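Sharing a chain and its predicted structure for anyone who wants a worked example. Both blocks are below, sequence first, tokens second.
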Amino acid sequence: MEIAPAAAPFPAPHRPGPWPVVAAVLVGGWAVLVTVSGQVVGWAVDQVLLVTGLPRAVLVWPLVALATVLLVGAPSLALALLPRSPAVRATGRAWLGGALALGALALLRTVPPVHQEAYLAALAATAAVLALIVGRLSRRRANAAPGTAVPGPSGAPPAAAEHLVAGPAVRPTGPAGGDGGRRLGPVTLLAVAAGLASLLPWAWVGALGGALETLLAGLAAAALGGLAGALLDATFWARFAVGTPPRPARLVLVGGLVAGVALLPLAAGAGQSGAQLPALLLLPPLGFVLAALEAAARRSGRPAGRAPVRWLVGLALAGPLAFTDPEEITVLLAAGRDVPYWVAVGAGAAFAVAVLLAVGYGVLLARPRAGAPRRTAAGLAAASLLAAVAVVYVVPGHPGLYGERLLVVLREQADLSGIPAGAPGRDGRNSRATEVYRRLVTTADRTQGDLRRELTRLRLNPTPYYLLNAIETDGGPEVRAWLSGRPEVARVLVSQRLRPLPAAEPPAHGDQPAPAGPVWNVSLIGADRVWSELRVTGAGVVVGSSDSGVDGRHPALAAGFRGGDDSWYDPWEHRTAPGDRGGHGTHTVGSAVGRNGIGVAPGAQWVGCVNLDRNLGSPAHYLDCLQFMLAPFPAGGNPFTDGRPDRAPDVLTNSWGCPPIEGCDPGALRPATAALATAGILVVAAAGNTGPYCGSVADPPAAYADVVTVGAVDRARQVTSFSSRGPAAGGLAKPDLVAPGAGVLSAFPGGGYATLDGTSMATPQVAGVVALMWSANPALVGDLARTRRILLDTTAKAGVPAGADTCGSARNLTGAGLVDAYAAVRAAQRAGAPS
């Protein structure tokens, strides 16, 4: 028998001096600081622009990406090239790769958030291409470099196959404890279990979007997992699995820390602005989980490879990518327990799960005497967690799809020209409203039939509208493209839909007592003098409110509700009795018609409709309420056939706007307000709270010429800093006038009162003044031209803060001036009937 030559001694790994290690620690801390701060600052800039109504800054994320690549990539490149230590060099390469990947992924945020499906498709494709590039570079480096020895399970010199490189090119066929072969091995199954555990909180607090959106989110998560696997391959882990025998504690602690920092930029690039924030918490602790899995695999005699990284990172990222809508992670919903609160809860729970997994896997898998993981036990853990995710998703979660809807605007809109003015007062108004309703419904029925039938056949749940000749329907980008190509379609808007919450937010309650007399703003505009001196309170006039709802049992509002079966409509929750969860609508109606000294026209009646839910709406829900105001219908009725235009309210108060984030373009509601004006129904709308920027009166309906647009002043009659400024599109001077909007006390749900700021608070006071005018002179009802002229001609002076930009003219801040209820009612009394 031939005697084999003695094996060559196992080469001792290079031990780095202290300075490369110190440099790596400093670079790692710097990388974390730069990456996290860049993502938070970028998101904050997006939110500031959104709240202030300024255009979206497309260059924000490219600049953040460039800064991150330079500030993190340069020191990481130095680590990858300069030190002699293989571990330090591997650290620099991983961090450099992560920074460059973030630079590419962050550029995708130039895609508008409303096109979420397009963004997710681009994210999946980009991450997949990056994974291929990184994988090829890793294989080239592995083939060019000397072999990296992987010690055997007993600490003996490695086998020949393992003496090559523990990298992607190696397909070991080691012992049963490893992950060789096509089926999932025990280490990969444990990674799947950890990923499913990370997914659990999102199955509870989140909800899926549309079908295509969910599919693309899954593909994007999988591609990002592949990219993570390419960065953290077996070659990477081999640099930390040194020693004879290898020390698993060193692999877990040092390798896990380096891997966590490398995963951070991938988390930063995972999702549109907002969706990446929870991933920043979630992914870094999973680096230790991956290190523990690698230690377990190497104890079995071979590296784990990329599969565990792909599964764990992909499943973990599927949570924030699929179960959250980045447009809802916004300060617009930050009040109370809405989407930002529950995303924070989900992120915190996922972080806690990741930390527990890191500790648990580290203790169980990286102990010096720990045995190799068993496939049966690992498979049972993965199956149990898969079942747990399914149960949580179905029981406390929100199963189903909650994607956005589409608003299909048809080319042909109703011809409302030539409608006679009719008799003065309400009789003439009713006849005009009836004719407008007839023409609108006739046009919609004639032009929508084919499209409605086709959408119904495709099970896309169409909802027709007539006030704007349009149809709301289910559908993603593919349906939108198909609809846009139809000859009868003018354009297709995205009609936003909020995803459901794990628990409804507790209803708002007022915490202030009723005022002792007329509140300051009522006295400032002289409404109390109208009651006492002119004996006019608004009796005989009906004010319509489209808002978050109204607390119909509030002591200041209960007596003013018109009643009947056609005075309340809730298209969100289909409640048959007036109610209000948020309080905004109760406050505004109180300022218009509330008793106890809070309302301008306490003798007027009100009707209500809910077009806001959780402070956001959509074009379709705004149309729901505007249609109801033109032709109220009984609960459960059909707006097309059961409308009663003779029961329409006289004046509408609208303390809302429809910005692009909700799906509106500048002309989205233009036909709707034009039809209401033709019917003789006056629309009063808030200018918005996006001042002090010029041109910030932009969102429908405030920017329309036939709408009375209201800005806000304070107690000193000075325009507030938040009140939106004109000019509107086309150079139209807006607002039309101003009213008190700072520190306004009014009704709030639960019987109490609250003080709020905003042009929302100013708007109902102008609607109340119109109610007083029409109560004093019923011949003016429906005569919008004369009413508008009296309103603007009788205003008092309003001030402009010193140094404020007048936006070309003071009228773009104050309009005609501060509404004067007393002067307007006196002028209305003198106006008489039209000649």
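Comments welcome. The two ends are 127 Å apart (CA to CA).
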